[in-house]
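Why do we care about 3D structure at all? Because function follows from shape, and shape follows, mostly, from sequence. That is the central idea of this module. The next example makes it concrete: a single protein chain, its amino acid sequence, and then its structure expressed as tokens.
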Amino acid sequence: MSVALLGVVSPNAEVSNSFGEGNRLLDSSKFTSRNKNSLCSGRIKKGKIPRSSFCSFSTDLRFSCLGQSGLENGGRFSIHSSMVVNPAGEMVGSSEQKVYDVVLKQAALVKRQLRSDDDLEVKPDIILPGTLGLLSEAYDRCGEVCAEYAKTFYLGTLLMTPERRRAIWAIYVWCRRTDELVDGPNASHITPAALDRWESRLENLFVGRPFDMLDAALSDTVAKFPVDIQPFKDMIEGMRLDLKKSRYKTFDELYLYCYYVAGTVGLMSVPVMGIAPISQAPTESVYNAALALGIANQLTNILRDVGEDARRGRVYLPQDELAQSGLSDDDIFAGKVTDKWRNFMKKQIKRARMFFDEAEQGVTELSSASRWPVWASLLLYRQILDEIEANDYNNFTKRAYVSKPKKLLALPIAYAKSLVPPSSTTSSLAKV
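And the structure:
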């Protein structure tokens, strides 16, 4: 997988952590007296929100077979059905429907808190004596990791309120540690059982029983913000896919993988970043935009890292679309840029940009202090697609990257965009 995240502590029970806590669980009562259970139980019934509110591309070319006619002329493609039949003859939802259900659940949690609070400002916890320093140390360590491995994003988080930026750091570190399980130096030793143990640790920290100090920071975060556990579990599921799956037959399959490993980050982050009080956009639409940004980023990672993944025996491209373009895995392993490859890449890049376009609609709806880092991430990642084009679509032997001057130029542009408030009238997101 191409998401670069840091592993600070291994989930293997045999490995002790950098804070010297060994293998024992930390008692959450030492950190906070807040009850977390009420934050993880929100659900709303399927069908409560009109299906058409999912996103502007739910019947668009992102789920189409790009090799067929219509894309070159800007045509739109419809999904034949959001339901499929599994080998047992049971009706099951598409990848998009599965993800949409998670979006609805997370949006319901935020809506419930909006009804119970005047706003989404964090209410202070009652910290028991002797533990404030430990928790502060854990958050500080999370900030150090974020500053080292995501410099631009870290700078943007400094504009947030202290509670929000610390919470974002805690989420970032957990995601990085999770990704490192299958992409880090010990990846060859990671087994499904290790991921099961990591998931068990996640469940424990959500009920106030963190394993180590870094877990304690996230445990405190999920106690303060309406964050649901499902996106975290889904990210671990993405790691499981990396252990057993190296090909994706259709974009529907690839979309679900992209959700697992990257779209989940958006769903984790929006409750912390907050939605602007004057936003008129439906809550679930803002989450859809955050989801779209994660999907766009991961698709960009995939297109940038085709050669690197091929050398590991992996092809994260829809097999049916490769075949429709007259290509196969052999062409990717050969690493030759041909006209067929250029045409195929143009279509893939166009789809990634469409997800970025959708994401842009939602960034403005976030709280003012949270918009800059998100805009910076969006603009910088989107430029990677430009660099792939500049390399004549050679993503076999050339790694597309954004130069430091271009990064520096993007920051003031992102800041200027972050100053634009959401419209006080009905947002275009609500019209989807």
